[in-house]
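Schema walk-through. Below, the input block comes first and the output block second. Nothing else is stored per chain. Lengths vary across the set, and this one has 1811 residues.
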Amino acid sequence: MIRIPLYQITQEIYTGTKSKVYRGINTITQQPVVIKVLKKEYPTCSELLQFRHQYTMTKNLNLAGVAKPLSLEKYGNGYALIMEDIGAVSLDTYLSNQTLNLQKFLELAISMVEILEGLYHHQIIHKDIKPSNIVINPETGDVKLIDFGISTLLTRETQEVINPNILEGSLTYISPEQTGRMNRGIDYRSDFYSLGITFYEMLTKQLPFVSSDPIELVYFHIAKEPTPPANLNKEIPLMVNNIILKMIAKNAEERYQNAIGLKHDLQICLNYWQNNKNIPLFELGKRDISDRFSIPEKLYGRQNEVNNLLSAFERVAAGKSEIMLVAGFSGIGKTAVVNEVHKPVVRQRGYFIKGKFDQFQCNVPFNAFVQAFRNLVIQLLSETENNLQKWKTKILSELGENGQVIIEVIPELESIISPQPAVAKLSGTATENRFNLLFLKFIKIFASQEHPLVIFLDDLQWADTASLKLMELLMSDKNSQHLLLIGAYRDNEVNPAHPLMLTLEEIGKNLAVINTIILKPLELTSDLNPLVADTFNCSQEIALPLAKLVGQKTQGNPFFITQFLKALYQEKLVTFNYKAGYWECDIAQVKLFSLTNDVVEFIANRIQKLSSETQEVMKLAACIGNKFDLETLAIVSEKNIVETANNLWQALQEGLILPVTEVYKFYISEESSALATFQTIETEASYKFLHDRVQQAAYLLIPEEQKQATHLKIGRLLLENIPKTERQDRIFDIVNQLNYGMDLMNNSIERKQLAGLNLIAGKKAKVSGAYNTTINYFNTGLELLTVNSWKTNYDLTLSLYVEATEVSSLIGEYEQMDKLAEVVCQQAKSLLEKVPVYMSKIKSEFAQNQMMKGIDLAIVVIKNLGLELSPILEEAELSAAIAELQSLIFLSDRSTEDLKQLPEMKNPEKLALIELLGLIGAAAFVVGSPLWSSIVFAMVTLSMEWGNTPVSAYGYSCYGIFLWSKGEIKAASEFSEATYGLFECFGGDALRGLTVANLHLRHWKEHLRKTLPLFLECYSLALSRGDLEFASYNIALHYFYSYFTGSELTELSLKLNNAIDAVLQMKHKAPLTWLQMAQQTTLNLSDRSENTCLLIGEAFDETKIQPQEDFGLTYLHFYKLYLYYLFGDYQESLKFCLAGQAYLHFSSSDYSLILFYFYGSLIRLALYNEGSEEEQQQWLEQVTSYQKQMKIWAHHAPMNFLHKFHLVEAEKHRVLHNYVEAIELYEQAIAGATENKYIQEVALANELAAKFYLGWNKETIGQAYLIKAYYAYAQWGATAKLKHLEKCYGDLLKPLQEQKPNLTSSLTTETIILSSDTSLIFDFKSVMKATQAISGEIKLENLLSVLMRVTLESAGAKKGYLILPQGENWVIEAEAIRNRNLEGELQLTAKQSIPINSTNKLSTSVVYYVARTQEIVVLDDATNETKFAADTYIQRYKPKSILCIPIINLSQFIGILYLENNLTVGAFTRDRLEVLKFLTTQAALSLENAKLYETLSIAKNKLEEYNSTLERQVKKRTEELNEKNVDLSETIKKLQKAQGHLIQTEKMSSLGQMVAGIAHEINNPNNFIYGNINHAIEYSKNLLGLINLYQEEYPSPTIKIEEMTEDIDFYFLREDLYKLLDSIKLGAERIQKVVLSLRNFSRLDESDMKRVNIHEGLDSTLLILQNKLSYKIGKSEIKVVKNYGHLPLVNCYASYLNQVFMNILINGIDALEEARKNNSELEEPIIIISTEITQDQTVTIKIFNNGPSISLENQKKIFDPFFTTKPVGTGTGLGLSISYSIIVEKHKGKLTCNSSLGKGVEFVIDIPCDL
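--- output ---
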């Protein structure tokens, strides 16, 4: 129990979230009391305020229904409120102890309403009515209202939007307007709503709205209709039900307007019930007539505008971003319209934040943005600790180490993300860029699908340029989502040249969505007259005369109308007619009422009727701004806070000033200082003007000649009273006021002080990148200086001039900059003090593209600093300079590694010197200045002698380039390492040097791919530092190098699009052009341009855009030569190669040089055979020269260059006819490119090898390489190149190409009739295009995406799912959903594997039905289908049309396609179903194909890994054997055998894979043919039947038909068609047999031993060798005789055994072929195969050929590894060796060779029948 002097506590009666309530006794008077105390030991200011406020509000309130407070006592760190004890309990406690009958309820209800009636007459709004704040004496029935902690004496309050967790009142009982999200003020009718909720709970035992989510509860209050209480409790009479529903209406105008009217209706109910126990129907509200003049707050005449705004938010919630502008005169209702968006924002759990630009604070950068986000951060601070931690993580992940930049403008953010480290100081535009980019990131954190963000910026006509720039960047970002920026401005105060209009024009150029709502004055009949009628509570006919008069006086301006009507009431020109029940006025008197047509003057007149104290304080407030705080106002009023608040009170009562926080209540009584005894006010009392016009009116009351003096006085008072520790944070408030009045300053000391304050303000604005605001402060500071300030205030004067010079340069005011710089150069005492000005001048020259002028100026300054730079023109001079510098390194006993450890440079002169060198270094390089070498050497020398700076990194990188040019690649690489070391030390300041090293040096020692992450890191770092130029260069270089590391083109294209969008916003032309050229090249290769060799398309047009710098020209010429070379136009390629070499000096050591060498050699060798002898000689010499250099580079970085070297060498040997050498070199090139993952060069090497073999008439080998090239190009994504190969080598690539269905000659049009009884006629090209799209994908993930896109487009579905079996379950493998707001845009997701039971995305009942029956299900209106009526998905989501179709391939059930259209009934017509059947046939084939491809890819990777492991093991074993050197010959023999076995195993494994692959690739198109041939036959019958029917019905054809019949020989065609189709079917069946044989032979899936049919293996092998056995020109066919015995199934390794058969049969065929070459008299060649089973259960297979016999000597060695009798180059000697191992070792059998002179050769295989 607690202890309070003079009181004894007897009982604890209540514990709430914030307070406790006790019963006690006054020990002196013995009076029973109730004591209320705060629970917290250290309560907040707000809690103390509310506690004291309830005492203040009720102590003098003599109402029987309000509990009387006795005293307010000090208790601990807070208060104890002592109240009379009437023996009451809270209403909720009272109800929990008894059942409430209707009569008792009505009696209690009337008592409660009587209390509200009393509050109404005392003009008090309670704002927290709920059962726990209503107490009842159980014995007497007396009812009292308690807890007035948040009550107000204002007739109307406005609730700001804040977090629901900290809303005043109880969330379950508060009215919609109390949520701050209803665009309505809070008045006495708010209490009616809360009391209605209480009545609802009393009668139903439950609340109308229940949720644990505060946001959801707020939404329920403002938008959800409650369940009528009579529906929950049938005993509630209808009239009582209706009374409660009227009380809790959403809009205050629809509730009771008077407590008397409510009490009257309740009394009627009570009387009826007491008399009859029944309440008949009666009219509610007969006496509900408000005697308080009130203007409705609903919007009149703005419904269309509100609908447009709400539609914009719906688009934003769905994922878009856009600007909605609301324009109109002041007071036209812009803010009121915008506030209507609150309701949908709450529904979507969004954030609505707002800021307002101020005409008196135009120099405060980002003022409105900062207001808005400070408010949002404050909302976040009221979140739970868990949620706050999530926000902290999100914010820090986006801002990184730059959080302090945002904290500078939003100090409250520090409470969320904790104090952040100081950020690096930046120069130039980098500061502005960094701030803008970080603020954009900060904004995007809060704009998400879960929380759409609405930013409302009011009075944009007063926005500063920095804010407009930020707005432009924000809305020009194409990646911006879920953001609605609403801007309101006065269109009569802007013109086309206004900064706002220019900004909007720029935003529009970037294709951002900008919509504008223009608000017009209210129209008399439809808008103004209803407003007047509702205000006066009369009919529109009665109101019309007054409405016309009001319209004339106010011009239909809503704000003016409201103020005018209030003025009529205040002037007592409006009276209430109790008899008629409405307000009325004398029109004649109103006409005589003096009224100006200027609303500002009108309001000024109203203000002048207030007390003089109130007028004065409002004038001062107007000078501060639209929003102000009490502390500042008290300072400038020169009064204490309490007196200032009291002076404001009358303005608050009149509604001219609105409180922003509840703290104002602290000051509304004479005891306002009481709180000071406990603690200081922690929360400032903030206010704002009702409207800008009120602020202007108050300001107007200040005489014009006194305004400057007033501002000056305000500024002086602020400066004097704000502590120095807070001065930095409020510098703009102080300086802006003083600057207004600076002309009145006569004191030189004060003017000097103000100049210093302007310097501080300018620097603070500069940090935010608000340069226009910054220069205003600096210029003002300069204006305040005295004539002799250089002598009297040197430091201040110098700082102002230097800062103003730099900022003038940044904003392009070059003339002003030159003037300021000239003054500094004349007046500064030292050269060092002049250097910053010189650097600004140099940068300005560069910005104006005057590179040489900037360099020349820098050279002069550098010379004055003691360093004279001389141009190095000769190669010898350059070599000497490098040697000298290298000797300096050597003599200083430093390695390049030591360079990283050098101390940091401190000498000011040397620092200035190296900064200047670094500033001009890049420019000198770009213009090709002969001074560049000297600049680089000077930077390195300075660094070595005086220590490192960030500029040293650039110097070391450039010096590395020099070393590289001299062939010192190792040394160059070491210098690049030094650069990386400096980056670790200096971070982002060393960015430029790091980029140079990454671009020019890294690839000479490391894989090119390793440069990519660093380019991205540099890009991100440059962005974070605001260096947009270097950010754009890094992202462009990243994708240039990505292209040549073999990045997949489709993915690369998507990333390039994003990069182009990013650089487009950065507005840097050169890197943008590089990216666009790369993108267009990618599109050309992806077959997305008309001409593959011209860079003309959606990304770039070479005829309109040409790079203006050498780098870009280098890239352009390379892309052109590359495309021409790749597509076979070698002459054009050579032209661009030669032209591009002119720019290579600029590329120096970057990767483009290698590309020109590499492709330059390949182009010349491709043209070699077409050239003259002289050209051939010249080309060979050039290639040899290039190769000499390439070999050196390959030595240092073989991963990048060795395969290129090998490929050029292969081509060189090809043209010189050195075929043996070429063969090996092609293989090495392919292997090297493959190993290092240069997929495009793998493809190229295979293509060139294929051309080589085809040129050599080795078609089979050439075809194999060509297929590999095709697959590699496909893997790269070069679709156009695939088509080029198909065009050039169509016959050789037939196994890979999809076969289209054979169409008969009668189907010559583009229209196909699918069946005789369907009306569907569809475009054949469209269907074939869809079919090809499906069949063209080999990768499973890509296929799934394409399949879903094609099916959705073909079916007209809104969403679809591909469902495949996974074990015993069905899973969603792919989904496609059409964006509701963007027709044609699909969201595709593949390879999900989501079990259908775990999701509610579709109807599982339908899916399971199709899975079990394999029938097609079409539901035209799913909700009305009885068959699936019980499905929960259909019940909940009510989809319209559903189509579910099985995917079947050759009777095999593969999967299910589920499609849905939730908008249209009967969407899936029979026609569309036919199309889908057609497409799913191909889908089934392609799915099987893709699965096999995926399986084979995995198997291939495992095989390669296994092979690599084996090779390492063999190598290791070989080394061990060599060391031992024991039994050397036997060891070598075993090793040869092992090696042979490995090679043959790999060879046969590859063969097996190839055979399986070929079988599959043949099977795929064959299945397509075979699966459709029956349809073709059926269609043909239908067509011919149709033709016959035409002939019967129209026996006399026209002349044209007869001619056509004869031309196509119709009658022959009709007879021959069926024969043709039958032959196709027969051919397809034969292909199936061949495929079966190939599969039997490969048996890739049968690596384990199993029982097989030996004869099937033999037959499959023979079928594969059929080509070798068949007849050839001049040679007879090799006859095969099969003497098969009756064999059982044999337990063996089938695939291995097939390999043995293959090896023996090939050897026999080769022997017979060789014999026919040497001996034309050879009798008929024959092979005899015999099989039998012996008594000992051994299977014997004999394979005999009648070719040359084998000598006895050779028979002894025939099974040795590498032994062969074939001619050199035609055999490896491994086949029989491996066969012997397979039979003897694997099968425990025997393999023997029998041969006698002249009697041929026989191989005998014996294997046990059962191993």
